[in-house]
UniProtKB/TrEMBL annotation:
CDD domains, sorted: GGDEF
Pfam families recorded: GGDEF (PF00990), SnoaL_3 (PF13474)
Record field: transmembrane: none
Domain GGDEF: 185-315
Full protein name: Diguanylate cyclase
GO molecular function: diguanylate cyclase activity
Organism: Candidatus Pullilachnospira stercoravium
Top-level lineage group: Bacteria
InterPro entries for the chain: Diguanylate_Cyclase (IPR050469), GGDEF_dom (IPR000160), NTF2-like_dom_sf (IPR032710), Nucleotide_cyclase (IPR029787), Rev_trsase/Diguanyl_cyclase (IPR043128), SnoaL-like (IPR037401)
Amino acid sequence: MDFRKWTEKLWYTYLTGKEEEVRQALEAIDPDCVIVGTGAHEYYIGRDNFLPALRGEMMERKDIAFRFRDFWCEELKAGTDSVLVYGGIYIWWESESKDQIIDMDSRFSVLFRKKEGAWKVVHIHQSIPYRDQMEGEYYPKALLKRVQEVQDIADKMTELAQRDSLTGAYNYRAFRRIWESRGRENSWIFLLDLDEFKKINDTLGHMAGNRVLKKIVDILHASVRNHDVVCRMGGDEFLLLCGDLNGQDSAEGLARRILRMIHEGALEDMGDLWPTISMGITEVREGDSMELALERADKALYRVKRTKKGSYSCE
């Protein structure tokens, strides 16, 4: 018996045959046959368990005319009553509108066994190899690497969407998200505004102004702890959310530290144009909305801007 020819006919019938031809081919399948495919769900113990999937598959491909671009197989005797046939199938199809393409290069094994004087198929396995799996790899590292690269890009895009493009500080949208997602016990809000910043743009140009804004953010990051939030609200206004401050004395101590570091961090070529910074600070109280806390901080900032720029006030 030519098991290779038999196997080839089985595959052709399975993939291209009419319903009656497939029904006749199934007579060669042993009732206890185990059938395994590529998909996680494609595991069938017994011919009858496979039949519903076969019917569904035939309905799905009723308008598809597979073209066999390649078929090969080899026969291996596994004893006096068993024969293993293994090989590969390459099928292709394209819809008339060219919006659907099937390009499937798969491999298979079929085990025949002689039972009660008749040869039956007792096991079928078909799988589609990962094309991203490189030679010598035992699992598709290239695919995993590509997935990781895509994930890294997605993470980077998410991070960029939360950042001010000029300074790298969090933007206001990200600040709101952080406010809503973290605990705020012993937290204080600092609302900061650069004094006379417009003079820098008018005198030295906007590029110089941009350098100042970036330097200010660098100083703010250096002034607070890693878990504190530095946000650029827009223009020359900044927002800090600082946690674990034990009362007003600690908050005012941090405010003085920021003022000192802003003064000491002046860019040399700015001269007298290097700005001071005014701050309104407030403790985040139980039940505060972000808007309510910012309203108090803004009130304190307005008081400083009106009376003594380059300082701070608590509300």
